[in-house]
């Protein structure tokens, strides 16, 4: 680990496991948007419990992420060629010098530039995602807020004055968004990170946001003490929630029945057709062949059920 005056703490991860462990100790550039309620991937409540546990998360890439990583080098080289830049992979992990618990990984850096070294963040973006989530006004383009925050976080940690979001749209269109370091945003990020870790030290968890945090809340309550009873008689809040849960279950069953009935009626009409041409919808009805599924160990879980009591009928 090396540290210079006015420069970030620079760490060279020894392995992916080491890199993942470093990330558990910081709020990183991909996570800080959650502190402002702007992350599509996590809420402040989920992030709080992840960091408090200190557990190293399992990192599984889906196919989109795998191909995004594979394309990064080519996208970066193409952008560099188009703009006459020299770029290099930034294989380091950095921590903010003055703000504990604030760190970042990076894609590339732009070197030998008149404005000094810059950060290059690469994104491979699906056309539909670009259309729906990126703001385009003539030549002016804004990335989704969590990506803009990601770059500002990186600039703050690395103490760089400028950076670029380089996006390959739909595999054939490049958009280059040059951004200067916004010191007000950087200061807000540092304050948010400091307050976040202070809340962990004080054991003051954020309020969960529903429905986003429902799964996390359930995962935090997977133990039941044998024989323990909670007396909720006269508790209007629990009575209302239980009634809501029960009604949702009835609605779910009714919806499933209607869905299966509609499916059966469609199949009875289309017979052995594999696809259906229809305005407003795309219908496919191909056959998935049989497959052997390896046995697995089922994890323990809370056997949660709500059953409506039957009203007694007076004799």
List the helices and strands and how they pair.
Blueprint: E1 9-11, H1 16-24, H2 44-53, H3 63-83, E2 86-89, E3 93-95, E4 103-104, E5 108-111, E6 118-125, H4 127-133, E7 135-137, E8 140-142, H5 145-158, E9 162-169, E10 173-180, H6 183-201, H7 214-219, H8 236-270, E11 275-278, E12 281-284
Parallel strand pairs: 6-9
Antiparallel strand pairs: 1-3, 2-5, 3-4, 5-6, 7-8, 9-10, 11-12
Task: Explain what the structure shows.
The protein is built from 8 helices and 12 strands. The protein is of the alpha+beta class. It has a 5-stranded mixed β-sheet, sandwiched between helices. It has a 3-stranded antiparallel β-sheet with strand order 1-3-4, sandwiched between helices. Strands 7-8 form a two-stranded antiparallel sheet. A hairpin with a 3-residue loop joins strand 9 and strand 10. 22% of the residues are buried. Mean pLDDT is 89; it is low at 1-5.
Strand order of the largest sheet: 2-5-6-9-10
Tell me the strand percentage band: 15-25%
Shape: globular
Approximate helicity band: 25-40%
């Amino acid at each position: 680990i090396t540290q210079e005056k006015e420069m970030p703490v620079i760490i060279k991860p020894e392995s992916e496991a080491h890199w993942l462990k470093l990330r558990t100790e910081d709020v990183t550039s991909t996570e800080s948007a959650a502190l402002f309620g702007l992350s599509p991937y996590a809420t402040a409540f989920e992030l709080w419990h992840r960091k408090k546990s200190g557990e190293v998360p399992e990192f599984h890439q889906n196919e989109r992420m795998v191909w995004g990583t594979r394309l990064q080098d080519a996208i970066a080289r193409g952008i560099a060629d188009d703009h006459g830049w020299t770029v290099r992979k930034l294989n380091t992990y950095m921590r903010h010098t003055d703000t504990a618990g604030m760190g970042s990984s990076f894609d590339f850096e732009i070197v030998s530039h008149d404005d000094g070294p810059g950060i290059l963040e690469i994104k491979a973006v699906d056309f539909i995602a670009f259309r729906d989530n990126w703001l385009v006004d003539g030549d002016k383009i804004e990335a989704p807020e969590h990506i803009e925050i990601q770059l500002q976080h990186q600039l703050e940690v690395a103490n760089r004055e400028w950076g670029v979001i380089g996006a390959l749209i739909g595999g054939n269109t490049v958009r280059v968004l040059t951004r200067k370091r916004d010191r007000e945003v950087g200061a807000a990020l540092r304050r948010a990170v400091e307050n976040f870790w202070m809340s962990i030290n004080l054991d003051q968890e954020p309020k969960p946001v529903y429905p986003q945090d429902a799964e996390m809340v359930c995962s935090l309550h997977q133990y039941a003490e044998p024989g323990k009873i909670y007396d909720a008689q006269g508790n209007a809040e629990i009575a209302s929630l239980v009634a809501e849960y029960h009604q949702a279950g009835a609605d779910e069953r009714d919806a499933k029945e209607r869905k299966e009935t509609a499916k059966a009626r469609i199949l009875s009409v289309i017979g052995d057709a594999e696809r259906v041409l229809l305005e407003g919808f795309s219908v496919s009805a191909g056959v998935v062949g049989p497959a052997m599924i390896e046995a697995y160990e089922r994890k323990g879980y809370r056997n949660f059920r709500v059953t409506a009591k039957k009203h007694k009928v007076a004799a």
